[in-house]
Amino acid sequence: MRTYYVTINGKELTVRIGKDGVVTLDGRNGSHEVKRVSPAGFSVIVGGRQVKVVAVPDTGGYDVIAGDFRGRVTVESERERLLRRYARSTTGSSARLEVHAPMPAMVVKLEVNAGDEVRTGQPLIVLEAMKMENEILAHASGRVKAIYAVAGKPVEKGELLLLLE
Question: Please, what are the averages of pLDDT over each run of 10 residues along the chain (165 residues)?
Fold first, then answer.
C-alpha cells in the first residue's frame, strides 16, 4: 500500500492506494480511473463522473484546475514525510539543521564534506536499508558543520548523521 499526504488549499488529506488499485481518501474507499491526456492534463473518473484535471508543477507543489476547483496542491509521499521529519531544526548561538537517520541502515556514501556549502534538495548521504538505496537530501541551504556518519558503518533510526548551519 502506498500512502500520500495531499494538501489542497491548506487542508490535508491522506490518500492510500492498495496494490489492487483501491483508493481510500481519509479512510473512505472510492473507485477511480486516471488517464494522462497531455503532459499536464488528466482525465479522472470518480464514481462514474469524468473530471478533466490540469496540474501544472510549480515550486513545492502544483497549480490545479479540476472542474470548478482551482487551487494549490502539494503531494508528499510517506517516505518523503519520514525523511523530512528526521531533518530537525535546532536553535543555539546560530541556526543549524540536524540531519538524522530515518531508519536503521548502512551508510553507503557521503556526498559532502565538512565545510561544504549545500543547497536545498542536494544529496548529503546515501543510506541502504532493505536492499534499497535512499538519498538523504538537504532540507535547507547552508554549510556542513560536522559529519557524524561514516561510510560502510551502520546507523540506527534517529541517529544524528550531520549538522548544517
Answer: 82 80 70 78 80 83 85 83 63 64 92 93 90 86 92 91 90
Check if the beta carbon of residue 16 is closer than 8 Å to that of residue 23: yes
> What end-to-end distance do the CA atoms of the chain give, in Å?
37
Q: Is 18 helix (H, G, I), strand (E, B) or coil?
A: coil
The answer, as to whether pTM is greater than 0.70, is no
CA distance 151 to 110: 6
Q: Sort 102 into a burial class: Cβ within 10 Å, 0-12 / 13-18 / 19+.
A: buried
Mapping DSSP to helix (H, G, I), strand (E, B) and coil, where does residue 65 land?
strand
| Domains defined for the chain, CATH in brackets | 2-77 (3.30.700.30), 86-164 (2.40.50.100)
CB 101 within 8 A of CB 161: yes
C-alpha 82/C-alpha 76 separation (Å) is 10
Cα–Cα distance, 76 to 12 (Å, whole number): 10
What are 16's three cell numbers?
A: 492510500
> Any alpha helices (H) in the chain, and if so which ranges?
78-85
